[in-house]
Every structure is written in C-alpha cells, then in structure tokens.
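Protein: histidine kinase
Species: Micromonospora matsumotoense
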Amino acid sequence: MSAAVVPDHPWLLPGALTPEARAPRRTPRDWLVDVVAFLLALGWALVAFGDAVSPNPQFAHNAGPSWLVGVDLLAGLACCAALWLRRRWPVGLAVVGLPLALFSVTAGVALLIVVFTVLVHRPLPVGAALVGFHLLTVPLYTAVRPDPSLPYWGTVAWTVMFIGVVVAWAMFVRARRQLVLSLRDRAHRAEAEQQLRVDQARQLERTRIAREMHDVLAHRISLLSLHAGALEFRPDASPQEVARAAGVIRGSAHAALQDLREVIGVLRADTAGGDTGPERPQPTLADVPALIAESRAAGVRVTLVDEVADPADVPTAVGRGAYRIVQEGLTNARKHAPGAAVAVRLAGAPGRELSVEIRNPWPVGPPGPVLPGAGTGLVGIAERVTLTGGRLTHGRDDATGDFRLAARLPWRA
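Structure follows.
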C-alpha cells in the first residue's frame, strides 16, 4: 500500500459533511488510486490462494482444512470487490469484514485498506475501535491458521507489528491532510479578512466623503441663499450689485455642482470596484484666508485675526479640521444670524494647541427664513475634533451674549 490509497477528498475532516457529500464523484486520480488498491488486494488474494493449494509444504504450511481454502478464496474476492464501495461506506465494510479477520488470509490486504481508509477519514474513536477489534482477532486467527515456522506468540507479535505499521502510516497521512486543510482554511480566512478590511475601508471612505460634502455644500448653498435673499429684498439694487450677486450665485452653484459630480463619481466607482482616481487637494489652515475672502465677497462681514506664524507648520489633519470648523461656523452664522458680523480668530504654536474661535452676535428680533439643514454640522465637527484629540465648545457666551464656537486642537512639535 502507499499514501495514494486514500485519495484527497473534501471530506478529510471527519464529521464535517453529510454522507452524501462524503462520496463525491470520482476524479481521474481517484480512479487510478482505486484501481491500484483493487489490484494490490486481488494480487495478494491470488498469491495467498496459490500458496494454500501449492503441493510444496513450505508454502501451504497454514492452509488449514481443505474446505477452508475455498471459503477463504471467496471471502478474499468479495473483499476485493467491496473496495469499490469503501469511499461511501468504509465503516460498514470494516464492520462486515471483522469476522473474516478470524480466518481469511486472502482478504488480509483488502481489510487493511478498509481500516486504513477509516483511520484517515473518520473520527479517531471509530478507527481506534476497529483497530482494537482487529487486534483481538489476531490470537484467534493465529490459532486457526498457525505458522509452523514461527512460535505462536512470535506469529502474534509479527501480525500486531504489521497492523501497527499500517496504523502509524494512516495517522501520518491523516495528520498531513488535516494540516493541509488547516493551512487552506487559514488562507481562505485571511483572504476573507482582507476583503472585509477593504470593505470597511471603502465604507469609511464613503462616510468621510459624505462628511466633507456636508461641510462644503452647506457652505456653498448658504452663499447662494444669502445672495438670492439680497436680490429678493432689494429689488431696487443697482445693476452692478445685481450683476455681482448673480455672479456669486452662478459661481457657487457651479462649484456645488462640481462637488456633487465628484462625490457621485467616487461613490459610483467604489460601488463598481474601480479606481476612484486622485482626489483634489484637501484644504488646510493656509486656505482659511481664501474662505474668509469668499464669504466677504458674498457680503458677510467677517474679520480674521490670524496669530499663527506659519500655517504650513500645522499638521495636515489638524489644519484640515480647523478649516472645516471655520467653514461650519461661517455657515451657521449665515443660517441663523444673517447680516451679523462674524469674528474669526486663529492662534497657536507648535508644542501647544491650535485655538480656533468663531463669534457672532446672538440673533435678535423675529427669526427670518432659515435654510434647511440636517442639524448634524456641529455633530460632525465635534467628532472631527474628538478624532484629533481636541476639545470643542459651542453655545451662548454668558459674558458677551455672543454665540461662540471654539475648538482646541493638539499641535505637536
């Protein structure tokens, strides 16, 4: 016998599949292995029968009674034929073949192949029980078919040793195949975990894009609303003022559409599993003056006090967070306190903190038309600040009565 006697099937781990799944369709390799196993068992049966009927006493020493020779041949041939069923019912064949182990010489190799199959492919307690029963039959077999050339216990020891070699070989094949299955399972699991990490990264990227779009679009749409409201309430405005307002509205609408087009393209590419392409440069603290200028061009009264010596020294994540905080503060001021003056202050140095503060007077009088919103702007800003390890406060300042949005972001040296 060889390790190829037991083919490589997906039912290597016992009890993992149903009996139907444990007998897959034979592959060409399976047919080759089964043919080799059948020929080995049949060849041994014919050799053993030839020895039993040989006139030479040296070969016919343990033939036993004459009637037993014919019965032994039939039993051996039946076991050889039954090997074609060992893939589906190895345990049943092993149990049925136990009585033959008491007297049959011709069925010896076929029975060992069946036991080998059970040890490799079925739970170890089942295989151990079958091996134990076969070991119990060895003394009885030796008594029925004695070997004159060896003493009784010598024959028993030789037979037990041969069975032990087959068991050890089967355990080695079983351990090797289970190791292969374990490595294959680990590879599949690692691949699945990698895919899960990729999916999570995509989901996080979609969430980040949604947050960025909320900040950007809220800012642009508030500019649109501001100028549209000015045109609505000032029908007597000069043509120059109307043209300027219309230009800001057109520019803001074009920028908002461009932002929407980009985010939709990114999300579609992500859904299709394609490459999203390079992203636009993200804003940093150095872009805050341009943001202030954009709001001033829209007619918002904004003052900026920038006490940061070199904005380029601010870490990228911290600078982007500060930019979004200022952007959200200006958007809230335009929404809830239209026409109010807004004060923005930036301060900080490496090794300390970056302080961002936006103030505007608390609105008085009846509330005007309010832009619709999701109400999650400050929530998103708070989460952004928390992720950078900073602190955020917002609300009415009891000392001045202004609305104050302030954040302190860590600025490591």
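Remarks: Confidence is low (pLDDT under 50) at residues 1-23.
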